Amino acid sequence: xxxxxxNILDKCDRCLNKGDKNGAKSWxxxxxTLFARNFTIQLKTLFLYKSCDDVVGARKYxxxxxxxxxxxxxxxxxxxxxxxxxxxxxxxxxTFRDVFLQLPIETQKAALRExxxxxxxxxxxxxxxxxxxxxxxxxxxxxGLEALDILxxxxxxxxxxxxxxxxxxxxxxxxxxxxxxxNDIIVDKPIVRADPQQNISLKTGHFCxxxxxxxxxxxxxxxxxxxxxxxxxxxxxNGWSKLYELLCLIAKKCQWPExxxxxxxxxxxxxMVRWQALEEISNKKSLQVAIGSxxxxxxxxxxxxxxxxxxxxxxxxxxxxxFPAFLVIIAHPHTDQLELKREAMEFDLNQTFEVQEARIxxxxxxxxxxxxxxxxxxxxxxxxxxxIQQWGIEEWHWINLFLADMHTYHLNFTEAIExxxxxxxxxxxxxxxxxxxxxxxQRNMCLLQRGGVDAAGFGITKVLxxxxxxxxxxxxxxxxxxxxxxxxxxxxxxxxxxxxxxxHLTIAIIDSKLINNIPNHMILGGLMVLxxxxxxxxxxxxxxxxxxxxxxxxxxxxNLIKYxxx
Length: 566
What we know:
Layout: H1 3-17, H2 21-34, H3 39-51, H4 55-68, H5 73-87, H6 97-101, H7 105-118, H8 122-135, H9 140-155, H10 166-181, E1 185-187, E2 200-202, H11 204-226, H12 233-236, H13 239-254, H14 271-282, H15 287-315, E3 326-329, H16 354-374, H17 378-391, H18 397-409, H19 413-426, H20 433-450, H21 453-471, E4 488-491, H22 495-513, H23 521-531, H24 539-552, H25 560-563
Parallel strand pairs: 1-2
Antiparallel strand pairs: 3-4
């Protein structure tokens, strides 16, 4: 820097340090006159006016340097900082926000537009355009789609390990709602206009893509927030409600009258009320209704599937762990009928969870209905599979566990087993004990219901040994076995809950094997260990086991004595 300039700036700073604002202003005005084309001096002059609380002088000088230094990179970085304060709900007091807002409106528009053109960083570009649309909503039709393209490009550069994609966040939370609220953006209509920037006609597919993107963002964000890996008010304020608001905006834009204003679709309604509203809408045959119904079903499926998972996770005893309670079929002792018919949904829950019980039941039923609806014809199924593949849904831990429960509820045991085996293989290097137990027990329950008695018996014996070795085996039983009227139960992944259920399951295996032949040694030994935990009402079963051992002539169950304590 020129020594003369440095000397003048030094004297200006000395005056400011002494509180001599007039002296500082004299020196800087001298420098700005002598070095009229030096941007550093001109910017220093602007800051001096601001520090002297001379808003009028600062406004005039800001306008001057915007006009006289259009190619100066430092100017556009300066304007980028101003744009960020324009977006802030609580901007710092010492910014140039108020000075900028004193500029003529056209100067503000031109400055922000040019700044967006000049900066290279994609995030900076998008934020400047967003500030422009925030200040001047009438510019949304001109710059909204440009901002959308910039953010989409930026989102594709973010590594998948990043929990919340910052580009996608701005796109979903700010840009898309502005585009949907813009009256100059219309759907599927040819337009004759003198000013091509004022009205934009988009295909229905564009709006559907925006809804898919938003559904993906809020679904992932809600799950991450629940795991307490982020603290973001956007998700804490209920992303599902925001999604419903977007759906209503799109329905209005796309002219889906059956959806617009339908209060029964609101997230404030119970899940089955929303499903019934969807079912009623889908009966009206038209292409627009079909498209709208598909996206309602997608949104409702993910919301209710998550709500089911979230509630059973809480029942599991720890809202931050990765292994919720899970759905099992109660295998009634002393019955030859293993293919149980699905009756009215009833859960065997502690009274502590009475509130969750109704919500769990409704969420599972509504999600199941939506799943069936999304597979009800080739078009829906194809589109839903496209979404599954694009979003990588099969890699979502919670959705796999939900689908295992859902298939169990519908007695689709093969599908449930496939989902559990996929989740096991996906986590083979990081499978915690509780999740491993859940997968093994639910899978063997399904094998038993499907008729794979030998495989189920071997599997239950294997997981029993693992639970006993891991948790110890001398504790007071808290479970009283009894005949149950319910077909389904939610089972917590705790040893005190798992062991009694395995007792029921193993008795069912014993009873079924008696139809054909004598059970194997491992099943008998495992049952003998399990009976200890419900000795007060399983003595007859124990007598039956002893009789079977006599008929076998021996019992080969390694380490049996180790597991006996009663």
